[in-house]
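Shipment paperwork, digital attachment
Item: protein structure file
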Amino acid sequence: MKNAVRLPLLAIVLVALVGGFALHAAAGPPNHANRLEASFTESPASITNRIADLGVFQIINTGTGTLEGFGPATMVLGVTQDRSVQPCGPGSWTNAAIRRITVAAGTLVIRELAYVCQTASGPVATSTWTVDGASSTGAFADARGSGEGSVDLTTRTATLSGKLKLAADE
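Attachment content:
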């Protein structure tokens, strides 16, 4: 008789444990399943124009926006544009940049490479980016990740999306 009672009781306990693990897994990590989604409105803060002699244009932009899961953010972007190359036709160029995103939880540093191409609505930058975990601080220290971005230079709106793996999640 004792075995007859223990078996259903054991089954109930196992179902409760499995259900608890499933709910915990479905809840996901606090940074939205290791996704990075960010958007910013940028403004130029400093410009160095050496296109005439070196084919290089450098700009520092600042901005505000959001880093999903981390709230309001400020951003500083240092860009070097090589205007001597035209990867997507006349009026295009390449960018190499470092983007520093600061939120209450720390600073996330991203390295970006982009092509800026002319479109019917104006120049648009399409980038790939990689997290610089060694340069990042707080919650982002030693983070890893990569993704894609775009900047509409006419509206000065930047968006980033991709993967972000925080060291605390490992």
